Every structure is written in structure tokens, then in C-alpha cells.
């Protein structure tokens, strides 16, 4: 008991412990530093304050931004609507109300976990082969895993709620779905609306990232400009993307304060998307199914599996995940302690927004101007992007608590760092670690995006197999990715629940 008491003051330092993983990342990056691209990088940095204002370019970027936003809105609407109803159907509560065994829900959740485990980029590249280049490909690539994610969220919200009077509604003749929605909507609505708002922000970033890999929109414009080293054009696109993200973040924040506004946008989003697409003269015809040139069999897939070095591939993927997670979790609280003032928090908010705005492939390519490809570079690019997400979450929570929880330490003569450490950070540590655990799961999926940078890992091998149309190996890699991702999901769920329960049970 005495030992426990002595360890309590160290609680706010726990989120900083993953920062120890920064040391090997920095060592590897410094050893691989070649410095051959300082001039090019300097030009890239100068272009931030000197973006191109060419009218033709601006018109092209505006059109690309509309396509990106339209794709994100369409995917968001479809995934939220589908995910809500699927989440109800795969909940234990729903089947118990019907008097059916709850194992039916568990059977339904298995394919949902498989759909969720495959990154939207992989979905996009697969659908591109099956459907060809079409407006619908990017939207479907985002909507499929997002629907499965939303279904999981809704299921958790339903099954973890205290028993409401839905049995009385059932006995009065109400359908099961209506009874569940009527009974639990008041209690779960705030959290569900908040999550829906965050998913719109995520959908926008996913749409940009898919564009980077050639699926249209603003991301394609950014990648083409970067490949030609036209940094002023890249900066123009990034400034436009920044403005778009600010509008989306501000809009969703305002709508979350009015619970009816976001569902209203959700319902109106689909017809708005169709009308908007017609105004942009986009081809809305459904693409034709193009079957694969070969039909993989079990024996051919097993043969392909014997040709891959699975230990090396999986090991590299897990290393990237661990390093990137450490950067994403430890970076925001570490920077907050270094510069805890109000001005510092404003500067950090700008920094994390910049990290969120810049797609991971673009960040990685800029880093490669100075550093040789390695797992550390891939982890750094991925970690910085996700630090932008965790940083925003942490700063929002700190701003809500800072004035109240820090005043006592400041009055007692403590420094701003001490007040921050034992004020907001002490109260938020457990909740923040729960967020970090969930973010690690996302990072594991996102290793597919940076596999090309590191030249190793499952992401790299998957990209190589897709580019060479080696479908047997593609299937084997997808199965492996799904198994690892689902195992990581179970592990992070455990950590997330553990930290969240401790946070709920603590007095701060």
C-alpha cells in the first residue's frame, strides 16, 4: 500500500514513457542522414509562405478539393447510416430482445472485423482492379471499413448501457430495432454524435490519402506537384486543404453542440452528394465488374505463402507500429510540458493541425530528401501524422480543465510545468492512454501506407504483390494483415477498457 501511494505522483508521467522509443528512432535517422536534399527542402519550406496563386492552378485545386470533400461526405453518410443499423443487429441486446441466442451476434461480428482490419487504401487498390477507375471506388473504399468501425462503436454503446425499459416497449408491440433506438438514443446520442463528427474529419483525410495514390481529388494534385518538385503548387494545395479541414472541424464542433444538426446533415448528405456530383459533371454510372484474370485456389495461396519471409515482414510491421505509436502517444504531452503556456498551446495546436493536414506519403517523401529509407523514417512519418490527432484530443481536454485544475498549483508557487503536470495531465492521464491504445490499433492498419517508405513490412510486400498482379500472394498477405490487425484490436481493446475503467473509477 505504501508503495502504491509513492507511485501515485508518477501517474501523469506514464504517457511520457513511450517517448523512450524516440531514442532509437533518432539514432537510426541520424545515422542514415545524407543531407543531399537540404537545398530542395529549403525550397519546400520557403514555398509555404510563397504559394502559387496561378488562376489555372487554383481552379484545378478547387475542383479537386470539391471532389475530395464530396467523396468524404458520401462515404461518411453511407458508413454512418449502414454502421448504425449493422451495429444494432450485431449487438447481444438486439438478439436477446428477440429471444434468440446471442451467439448469432458474435457470428455477424466476425466478417465485420475482417472488413475493418483492411485499410481503406488497400480497399481502394483492390476495388480499382475490380471496378476500374471510377468516382465510386474511393467512396466505397472508405465506406466499407468505416461502416464496420461504426458498427463496432454502436454495438459497444448498446451492450454497455444500463438496462433501459426496452422490454416494456417490446411487450407493447414495438419492433426490436425501434425499441432499442427509442430506449437508448437519449443516453448514447451525445457520444454517438461526437464519434460521427470525428469520422467526418477522418473521412476527409482518407479521401486525400486515396487521391495521393491516384484515386482522384486534391490528393492526386498534391502528389503530381510533389513528384515534379513544384513546391509552390504543393503549398497552395496544402493551404486549401488546411482551410477545408478547419471548416469541417469547426462545423462538426458546432453541430455536436446541437445534437440534431449532425444527424440532419447525415440524412441530407446523400442527396446533396448526388446533386453536387452532377454539378461537377462527374460520371455517376455504376462501373462494370472486372473479374480477376486468375482464380486463386487454396493450394496456390498456400504455395505463395511459402515464398514470403513472414518473420521478417511481420517483425518490421510491428516495429513500425511500436515506434509510430510511441511518437503519437508521447509527443503531445512531452511538448505540452516543454511549452505549457497559453501561447505554447496555441503554437502546438497549429503544429498538430499541420501534422494532420499533410498526408503521410507526402511527409515521408519530404523526409527522404534528407534521410535514407528505413523503418525509422516510416515510423516517424506515420507517428507525426497520428500525433496530430492525439495532440488535438489532448489540447481540447487540457483547455477544458486548465484554468480550474492548475490554479491551485500556481497559487502555491509552482511553475507552469508543475501546474500542468499535476493538474490537467494528472487528471487526463488514464483517459489519454485509453485514446492512445485505440490510436495504436489505427496505426497498425496504417502501416500499409508507409510500407513503401521503409522498403519492408507487410505494407511493402502487399504493394509489390498488387503492382505485379500476384493475386495468390495478395490474398495471403490480406489474411495475415487481418489476423494481426484483429489480434492488435483485441489487445488494444483490453488496454483501452482497462485505462478507461481506471479513469472512471478514479477521483482525479
Plain-language structure description:
The protein contains 22 helices and no strands. The protein has two domains: 244 residues, Orthogonal Bundle (MetI-like fold); 225 residues, MetI-like fold (Orthogonal Bundle), CATH 1.10.3720.10. The two termini are 19 Å apart. The N terminus is likely disordered. By secondary structure, the chain is an all-alpha fold. The longest helix has 40 residues.
The average pLDDT score comes to 79
The CATH topology of the largest domain comes to: MetI-like fold
Order of helices and strands: HHHHHHHHHHHHHHHHHHHHHH
The CATH class of the largest domain is: Mainly Alpha
Profile the largest sheet: none
Range of helix content: over 70%
- Helical stretch count? 22
Shape: globular
Distance between the termini: 19 Å
CATH homologous superfamily classification of the largest domain: MetI-like
Rg from Cα:
24 Å
Low-pLDDT segments? 1-9, 404-412
Number of domains: 2
Strand content: under 5%
Number of DSSP-assigned strands: 0
Relevant terms:
mainly alpha; disordered N terminus; MetI-like fold; 2 domains; 508 residues
Give a short overview.
With 508 residues, the protein is mostly helical.
Amino acid at each position: 500500500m505504501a508503495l502504491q501511494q509513492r507511485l501515485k505522483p508518477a501517474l501523469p508521467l506514464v504517457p511520457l514513457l513511450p517517448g523512450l522509443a524516440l531514442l532509437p528512432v533518432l539514432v537510426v535517422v541520424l545515422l542514415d542522414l545524407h543531407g543531399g536534399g537540404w537545398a530542395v527542402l529549403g525550397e519546400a519550406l520557403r514555398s509555404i509562405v510563397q504559394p502559387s496563386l496561378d488562376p489555372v492552378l487554383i481552379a484545378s485545386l478547387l475542383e479537386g478539393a470539391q471532389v475530395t470533400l464530396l467523396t468524404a461526405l458520401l462515404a461518411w453518410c453511407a458508413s454512418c447510416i449502414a454502421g448504425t443499423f449493422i451495429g444494432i443487429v450485431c449487438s447481444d441486446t438486439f438478439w436477446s430482445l428477440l429471444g434468440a441466442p446471442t451467439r448469432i451476434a458474435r457470428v455477424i461480428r466476425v466478417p465485420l472485423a475482417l472488413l475493418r482490419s483492411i485499410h481503406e487504401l488497400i480497399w481502394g487498390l483492390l476495388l480499382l482492379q475490380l471496378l476500374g477507375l471510377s468516382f465510386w471506388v474511393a467512396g466505397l473504399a472508405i465506406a466499407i471499413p468505416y461502416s464496420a468501425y461504426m458498427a463496432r462503436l454502436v454495438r459497444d454503446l448498446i451492450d454497455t448501457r444500463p438496462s433501459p425499459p426496452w422490454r416494456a416497449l417490446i411487450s407493447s408491440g414495438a419492433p426490436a430495432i425501434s425499441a432499442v433506438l427509442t430506449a437508448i438514443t437519449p443516453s448514447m446520442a451525445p457520444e454517438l454524435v461526437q464519434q460521427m463528427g470525428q469520422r467526418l474529419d477522418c473521412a476527409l483525410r482518407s479521401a486525400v490519402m486515396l487521391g495521393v495514390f491516384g484515386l482522384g481529388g486534391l490528393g492526386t494534385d498534391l502528389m503530381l506537384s510533389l513528384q515534379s518538385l513544384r513546391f509552390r503548387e504543393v503549398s497552395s494545395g496544402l493551404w486549401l486543404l488546411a482551410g477545408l479541414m478547419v471548416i469541417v472541424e469547426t462545423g462538426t464542433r458546432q453541430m455536436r453542440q446541437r445534437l440534431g444538426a449532425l444527424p440532419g446533415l447525415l440524412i441530407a448528405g446523400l442527396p446533396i452528394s448526388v446533386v453536387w456530383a452532377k454539378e461537377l459533371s462527374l460520371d455517376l454510372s455504376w462501373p462494370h465488374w472486372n473479374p480477376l484474370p486468375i482464380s486463386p485456389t487454396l493450394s496456390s495461396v498456400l504455395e505463395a505463402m511459402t515464398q514470403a519471409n513472414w518473420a521478417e515482414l511481420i517483425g518490421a510491421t510491428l516495429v513500425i507500429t511500436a515506434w509510430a505509436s510511441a511518437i503519437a502517444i508521447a509527443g503531445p504531452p512531452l511538448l505540452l510540458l516543454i511549452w505549457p503556456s497559453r501561447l505554447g498551446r496555441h503554437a502546438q495546436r497549429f503544429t498538430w493541425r499541420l501534422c494532420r493536414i499533410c498526408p503521410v506519403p507526402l511527409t515521408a517523401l519530404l523526409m527522404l530528401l534528407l534521410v535514407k529509407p528505413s523503418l525509422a523514417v516510416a515510423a516517424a512519418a506515420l507517428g507525426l501524422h497520428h500525433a496530430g490527432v492525439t495532440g488535438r484530443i489532448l489540447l481540447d481536454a487540457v483547455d477544458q480543465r486548465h484554468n480550474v485544475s492548475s490554479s491551485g498549483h500556481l497559487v502555491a508557487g509552482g511553475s507552469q510545468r508543475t501546474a500542468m503536470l499535476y493538474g490537467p495531465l494528472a487528471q487526463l492521464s488514464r483517459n489519454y492512454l485509453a485514446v492512445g491504445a485505440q490510436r495504436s490499433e489505427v496505426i497498425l492498419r496504417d502501416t500499409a501506407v508507409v510500407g513503401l517508405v521503409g522498403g519492408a513490412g507487410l505494407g511493402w510486400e502487399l504493394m509489390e504483390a498488387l503492382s505485379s498482379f500476384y493475386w495468390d500472394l495478395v490474398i495471403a498477405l490480406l489474411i495475415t494483415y487481418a489476423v494481426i490487425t484483429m489480434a492488435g484490436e483485441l489487445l488494444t481493446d483490453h488496454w483501452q477498457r482497462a485505462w478507461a475503467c481506471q479513469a472512471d473509477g478514479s477521483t482525479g
